[in-house]
Amino acid sequence: MNISKIIKELLLLLFSLVFLSPVYIMVVNSFKNRQELYENVMALPEQFSLQYYIDAMDKMNFLTALGNSLFITITSVIFIVALSSMTAWMLARTDNKLSKFIFMTFIATMLIPFQTLMMPLMQFMDTISSTLNIQMLNTRGGLIYMHIGFNAGMAVFLYHGFVRSTVPISLEEAATIDGCSKLGLFWKIVFPILKPITVTVIILNVIAIWNDFLLPSLTLTDTALRTIPLSTFYFFGEFTIQWNMAMAGLTLTVIPVVIFYVFAQKHIIKGIGEGAVK
């Protein structure tokens, strides 16, 4: 066997071990009691028991948190895909200074760190709540609204480039001549062509919104509204950390994303590949 090939395979194996080691530590220690965990983090547990998972689910209020995370993630992604794709299409097909300015504004939102905006954002949302009597804080709707705002920039950027390089104007002109409305033109003709980049947008946003901790921690104070990442934080106290319970909670948090990837990996790989080529 070629020596260079052996070296490459060894390097790949090494990198795989580096990336998989946190997962191993998380899963293995979720089955241990505190004494076992503190004695040797890397060792296998003396006994595999699901009791810590049962306790973690109870203390996290897991089913409620799972429902909140699913509702917030799915609703946010649907609105991001629908609104961003239409916006990007209109901007790509409108050639004037205003459309260019709006597009550059979307790009600018990608460059501003969320940490610089979080306090002004909370003050702004509180002002809306008190002035317009529309509850924006401590509600699922308010959090979804903010997720749409913060994630639309990247989605518009991706859709805009794909529309300009892939969707033929002649196809749109032919549909218009046949009497197709603007809305019908987009949903019946343009949007199906956007499938590869739509898959990419969905993947990026599902992972980002599902794993988000900072924004929900700022906006959701009611325990009944907590998402899974917020519920996991229950095990990290001010003076003590329940590491075995925390590891079980983190494993429960990761499982839905892994299931999503297993069932969607064919479309994920195809979507990312086609999106990158386009």
UniProtKB/TrEMBL annotation:
Listed GO biological process terms: transmembrane transport
Family according to the record: Belongs to the binding-protein-dependent transport system permease family.
Superkingdom of origin: Bacteria
Chief place where the protein resides: membrane
An annotated GO cellular component: plasma membrane
Localisation: Cell membrane
Domain ABC transmembrane type-1 span(s) in chain numbering: 66-264
Recorded topology in the membrane: Multi-pass membrane protein
Gene3D superfamilies: MetI-like
Chain ranges passing through the membrane: 70-89, 101-122, 142-162, 183-210, 241-263
Protein keywords: Cell membrane, Membrane, Transmembrane, Transmembrane helix, Transport
Record's keyword annotation contains Chloroplast: no
SUPFAM superfamilies (UniProt xref): MetI-like (SSF161098)
The name this protein goes by in its record: ABC transporter permease subunit
PROSITE patterns, alphabetized: ABC_TM1
Pfam families per the UniProt record, alphabetical: BPD_transp_1
InterPro entries: MetI-like, MetI-like_sf
